[in-house]
Design a protein that fits this description.
about 300 residues; Phosphorylase Kinase, domain 1; D-amino Acid Aminotransferase, Chain A, domain 1
Amino acid sequence: MSGFVEKPEPIQVPGLTHLHTGKVRDLYENEAGDIVMVASDRISAYDWVLPTVIPDKGRVLTRLSLWWFDRLADLAPHHVVSTDLPVGAPADWAGRTLVCTPLDMVPVECVARGYLTGSGLAEYDASRTVCGLALPEGLVDGSELPAPIFTPATKAAVGDHDENVSFEQVVRRVGEKTAALLRRTTLDVYTRARDIARERGIILADTKFEFGFDGERLVIADEVLTPDSSRFWPADQWEPGRPQPSYDKQYVRDWLTSPASGWDRGSEQPPPALPEDVVAATRARYLEAYELLTGTAWS
């Protein structure tokens, strides 16, 4: 069992139709048929949406996504039409709301890995492969891969695990032409972002993208290259063979699985609320990632 510890009631706004409440985002449709995407301050871990929010997280995700969209547009267009606040929307939606083109979404999580960790490490330790791709012997937690790899997953509903799949499974699901386009675009965008991050002292270990089609055009949707969808590591502390310090929500995961939380991940009990110091430290990591990547002080 997993999902929301406390699922929020959707906010009703005149002229907007509520479509979906996800782990982090709430989706609406406006009268023109555009998608209105509102990034909340919710945080998820281990397939649970936690009962505690991280202040400013929604604005960080939105502002950082917009920064990246501008730097990736020649490789893959994005879905953002406007950042204007819809008429009648709550004032606290400001800075975390995007009006977007509706897309025919591809039912695949497009993951790129340049370093070995997480579920990729677990699979490698068992079989020396990740998503069916053979990797060399001798890799450890945090090892840089010989080249970035495309390791797709099926997108799960809230509370379910995304499941790593092979490229061949993606071909069966979306066709050979679309699968090849997804792989090429994912690796091109990852490589561009990896190089930009590296210039700023950050290792982009892995990341996931969501794509959709606007007619024949493949478009990046949702968010992109934030601490929610990416593993960011400080380059000057990188040391393969151990878990790496990070600018993402790994800090929350680590607390949840520590004795301090008192939570048994294997039980069906929901995780507890986060203490104030964990909230503050997590917020600080999100803001630091934003400031290091963009070169702009948070305000």
